[in-house]
Design brief:
The complex is a heterodimer of chains A (about 400) and B (about 140). Chain A has about 400 residues and is an alpha/beta fold. Chain A contains 14 helices and eleven strands. Chain B has one helix and nine strands, in the order αβββββββββ. Chain B starts with 12 loop residues before the first helix and ends with a strand. In chain B, about 35% of the residues are buried. Classes of the chains: A alpha/beta (about 400), B mainly beta (about 140).
Amino acid sequence: MASLRGQACIVGIGNTGYRRAKEPEGNNLTLELRAAQAAIADAGLRTQDIDGILPFFGLDLAEEFAVHLGIADLRFQMTSHLGGAAPGASIATAAMAVSSGVASQVLIPGGWWGYAGRRVREIVVQDVSAMSGGSNARDYYFPYGLTAPVQWFSMIARLHINTFGTKPEHLGAVAVACRTHAQRNPNALMRGKPITMDDYLASPLISDPYRLLDCSLEADGAAAFVVTSAERAKDLRGKAVPILGFAQGQPFPADDIVTREDPFELGVTHATARAFEMAGITHADVDFAEIYDPFTFQVIHQLEEMGFCRRGEGGPFVEGGRIELGGDLPVNTHGGLLSEAHMLGMNHFVEAVRQLRGEADERQVRHAEIGIVTGFGDFGDGSVVVLGRAS
Amino acid sequence: MNSPARPQPLLRHLAGEFYAHCRNGELRFQRCTKCGAWRHVPRQTCTKCCAWEWEWARSSGRGRVFTWTIVRRPMHPAFANDVPYAPCVIEMEEGVRIVSHVVDCPPDDLRPGMPVEVAFDAALPGVTLPKFRRVRG
């Protein structure tokens, strides 16, 4: 089989403003359509040119997008059930679809009233069985008051602390790096609200060891991107960012976070080598990484499992500004879910494309040639996408 | 004001059988009768060898604290009056792990590897939850 390396491109990106509104104005589709229209326009396409739609699990359906965008002949639709790893998995699906000719221009939308509407934590409580592993959570976690992502993942953070001596300051380094980057991002919810390590350490414990400042920001907004083939991208106005490699992966078992033989195993543990091999890169080639960051430790955890450092060394790895702009491996240059907004990881792709187009303004990574984006969903499902410099 | 109802397991199929043993004061996990592997949470086939044959094998009830979190801000309204409380993962002698509580240990006193034994909690109507207490000495 011919390699899929570089066969497809992200040719359009779009997003709404990210904010925390008092009341929803319209529904999720209102936000998602705004972002979709912006992404399609950014690609230099008309909405009717879209012939594939990969909507986000649990949000709006492809049929609803098609009718509102005037797409009379939708050729392809599919939804990934990998939670926060879905944007990366959808990029991969779109790349496969446009490379094989199943579709020509694929739209990937995602967004929600995640603050003014039903909050993420409420979604989980009200309907946990909808997620992967949800029936296990309902029958074996919830009766003990273990009901929310912040609680599940803080248990893994504590295991890491107990096993490897990871310190609060290591988690804090991730929070401070993301917040520092957000000061250079006009769309970041936390722009104008910088934090220090002392602020981090003084923030209240939510689910110990996680503090308030370990947690991502429930937010309102949407983002979208358009994927087309490298061949087709040449004819379009938009600056095309090549998709060089992609893979998804799951821990075993994926649907139960506490009984894994290897309790630190993640989806990216498996996906990273596959994605890097397709792209023909090594860790040293990566100029920046947009890492799915529902909570601070999940950044350290993924850096380890991706092989940027050895397991147990992720705490020291993120210290000393290494993951900040200007450091060896800038991480979450937009501020991430932690300080830009929890936009389902869609915003990580928007940021990576801006970086690789050289359009990231005051937060631009110099000479950015290779960027990676991870996704992390449900109980640790993962996706890794390698993107190259725009042509 | 009454607090909202505690979330309960759906007592059907394998979950129903697991909790029925608990109601009888027995902690039992599935054990594959082909390869002998213990498993939890309950599954239809063995996660090691895929065999359908299994039994509800009696656990020694003894295990050790594997990891935990201390909930200081409740995310579910039914637990609002319980904070701080500590959902724990217990690693049983048989090798399986289970989410539970250590009922006689203040959250801040939990330590990794702390030995515990099962102690059933019938406080909820309709379901008996396996919980744990410290083994001293």
